[in-house]
Design goal:
The structure holds two protein chains of two kinds. By secondary structure, chain A is α+β, with helices and mostly antiparallel strands. Chain A has five domains: 154 residues, Roll (Ubiquitin-like (UB roll)); 205 residues, 3-Layer(bba) Sandwich (FAD/NAD(P)-binding domain); 211 residues, 3-Layer(bba) Sandwich (FAD/NAD(P)-binding domain), CATH 3.50.50; 154 residues, Probable tRNA modification gtpase trme, domain 1 (Gyrase A, domain 2, 2-Layer Sandwich), CATH 3.30.1360; 99 residues, Elongation Factor Tu (Ef-tu), domain 3. Chain A has 24 helices and 50 strands. Chain B is mainly beta. Chain B has a single domain, classed as 2-Layer Sandwich (Folate-binding fold). In chain B, 10% of the residues lie in helices and 37% in strands. In chain B, a hairpin with a 3-residue loop joins strand 1 and strand 2. The chains are: A alpha+beta, B mainly beta.
Chain lengths: 1003, 91
Amino acid sequence: MTKNLRVKSSEFIDETSRISFKFDGKTYYGFKGDTLASALLASNVHLIGRSFKYHRPRGIMTSGSEEPNAIVQVNPNSNITEPNARATEIEIYEGLEATSQNCWPSVNFDIGGINNFLAPFLPAGFYYKTFMWPKSFWEKYEFFIRHSAGLGKSPTKRDPDIYDHRNIHCDVLVVGAGISGILAAKNAAKNNYKTLLIDEKNELGGSTIFETNENKKINNTFSSEWLKKEISEVKNIKNLEIKTRTSVAAYHQYNYLLARENLTDHLEKKDKKNKIRQRLLKIRAKKVILATGALERPLVFNNNDRPGIMLSSAVKKYIDFYGVACGKKNIFFTNNDSAYESALSLHNKGIKVDAIIDIRENSNAKIIKKINEAGIKIYWSHTIVDTSGYKRLSDISIMKLSNDGMSVIGSKTSISCDCLGIAGGWTPAVHLYTQSGNKLTFDEDRNIFVPKADNSEQICVGSCGGDFELDEIIKNLSNKLKNFLNISQTDFEDISLENDKETSKRNIWLLPSDKPTGKTKPFVDYQNDATAKDIKLALREGFRSIEHVKRYTTTGMGTDQGKLGNMHALGIIADTAGVKMGELGTTTFRPPYTPLTFGTIVGRNVGEFFDTFRRTPMNDWHIKNKAEFENVGQWKRAWYYPIDNETMHQAVQRESKAARKSAGILDASTLGKIDIQGSDASEFLNRVYTNAWSKLAIGKCRYGLMLNEDGMVFDDGVTTRLGENHYIMTTTTGGAANVLSKLEDYLQTEWPELDVYLTSVTDHFATASLCGPNSKKILNKIIPELDLSDENFPHMSFKEVIIDKIKCRIMRISFTGEQSYEINAPASFGEAVWEKCIEAGKEFDITPYGTETMHLLRAEKGFIIVGQDTDGTMTPIDLQMDWIVSKKKYDFIGKRSLYRSDTMKENRKQLVGLLTEDPNIVLEEGAQIVSELNQKPIEMLGHVTSSYFSPNLNKSIALAVVKDGKNMMGKKLFIPMENKNIGVTISNTIFYDEENKRINAKL
Amino acid sequence: MFLINCPYCGERDQQEFKAGGEAHIERPKQPTELSDDQWAEYLFMRKNIKGVQFERWNHAHGCRKWFNMARDTSNDEIKAIYKMGEKPPPQ
């Protein structure tokens, strides 16, 4: 079966290096330079996979990134396998393994192929229509749909490869290294523009590099020979960087482009090791030249999808570039002259071409004469009405077209063939151009969408810009470059050109058959199995917008994003609905141009580099003392310190008791700290906090609540007055950055007249919070010279002290209700001061505690945590914190909102305490609260915000927000859970030491 | 991804900046004297136009300065950038 179709050694293929690879378990051979597609074609393998919906056998259609059919699973037996790789882009290497997709048990015998015979029952929108009823069956349907959906297999293990990112800034970026791109890059670089040239292939030169058409000559030599000289020159220009195997994925505004550079995919395993697999280039270019070329269109006719049916340009590339014939009996089917070039390429290499079927009535291009001389029969005004051959094309049937092209006439002729090259004209590859936000305009004469206008930052050149003939390309390129690069001349404007001119045109979007449309399968989107019939059905069912038709029929929604068939879909819609294509517009081309692996997008930001961690100066001590950590924003905070085999609950209960019984210590370094200075600092605080600040004495601390302008609580913390015009503000750990931003915003935009300077000093200080009845004794051991009496150093005050020559600030403030001192040391001495506290506290059994115990202790006291007990809908009044809202102050952020009719409503959700009937039941945070169990629909009055088992009270306590909670003191409510209803009673929010005696008590 | 010309630092990538909503909405000097409707106008009402829109931007990962931008929302063209306190340029 495997017969070698390699007919002629090609300069692009290194026949001295034979490479073996496996496809569907069978070993094949190819050469260095081959793609998986070219190597398989050389072995006469066309059948690559099965289509998505009907499981029809499909072969290789193209020779590039637009391939819809030949998509394979690479390294199928590995758990890092890659799905949906295009065989036309995979460069073979020793040991490459690939398999077909979307078939079971094999591509040759695929059970799903039955869908092909069920096709009449699987019209567009089949899934939407069928599985909607009965509703209760959805779960059963879903199982089968999910099972049959999707093309390849996803990898199951994490990607072990290395990916990288690189930022590039350049003057001129040229995308595409065909003849236009090469000349553009050369002229830009030679005129002192720092230039970057990118091409997705491994060879420069596009399709011109293998062009040996005698009717296309530059300076009297083959255009390929001329271009090769240009390329060798281009490779040696200093300020020109060339990236091959690099595909531009996205073109964003302001000339920001993302490209994927493929570095090792073409190497064999041993050479890939420890190398970067792909690199994402983030390019910011001053000017962009798009030279992305054009994609050849297929023709839409009945059964146009069989293996062996390929684009005519692909047939030409396989013979001219890879030296591979795609069949032994070749036929071309065309609406333009380019198929004749492909036919001649085959003929010149000794491959038989049996016929050319042309829908046009004639053509007077020079090449026709050559075809006639070669004895190739041309069927003018004919179309293919059907094809046959299940896994490989075997025959075609042709008939004469009527004058209007809407029907066929005469008798049917059958011709046998194993390869059919189809040529439906060319579509400029304007995907990147439109991604950048620019508009297209429709050229009615040539049936193409072309860029509307060039601008000073971007131009489209070559066939991407709508120029298909060599002389037009060169002439327009030269003029455009002079203008765009502001240069007086290009180095190629005087070259002599010779090329055939195409004069005869005929375009029929859907070619007629002798059968009615309903009985035919003219595929428009090969990968998704959308046929012309489906598009017509969608129109009959009332879909008008191209975007809707696309989604309903799934046209253009595969991994190839409809690069081949989108134009036909538009054409068929326009013809059927009787509108002009230009008025229809196109669907939106979205990035990426070709699929991109997630690895490339995330680059190095994986594992420990996924996000930045912030660690406190005491972090090493926490690790040494076996702390468990929790993430608070980017911070790693000590959560609890289990001893032996303690559970989290046991550790937290022990820590909580110890802090109230004797002494505890908490690492509070993560609290946000903002240094505030300036002659208007007091006025500024008056405006940003709800309470009054002007009268705060130097050396005193005050708790403050900050609102948003809508009156909702935004942040809280203690601020200390260090001097006349100097404060230090603390914020919540998570809110630090937002508070600073908000304060800066008001200072810069609303109150620029205030003399206030803000500096974030969160990272400058480490904070050890010493708390408990023995904290005073411990601090006394550390600083014996400091008078710690309540008269000299009362609660809510501050002292500057020296501990071992280290200048520290101590605030006597409490988040636990116990006597408590927050020692702030310069960050680099944080651990030393912390260890000193631990050492001094040993005789008092000082217990380090983490954030969980901190939360429990503050809940016992009813202190809120912004973000846990509040959620951006709570005013201070809702929190029952009316005492902190100044009535006297004229204004502060959010004040006016506290008097809006909505915020003054009595029955808003308000913060209350909750006690469970059974003191051993600990409620779940987030649990809903109801009053009537039998009511339907049941009204949710609120939810639990904080809940703990208090070891100091020996019962469960909780905070909750409840509608009209303030007026429900003592009321019994319920918390319905999955298996039971929990009875609760609304209580005060302060559960422990309601009189606040412990703050000053001599215990 | 915009290229934004910070009036203090020069051209920088958009990822260094934070958008801050509509510009030229001045905080009322005497909020307590406003009716609920007047206050709601200041607090909630924002334009969302197709065309040139005036916006506040902050060079958050740079100089941290706030400034104003006139941007055409239909094509994201930045028409002008000017400092806080300055009047928007004539159309």
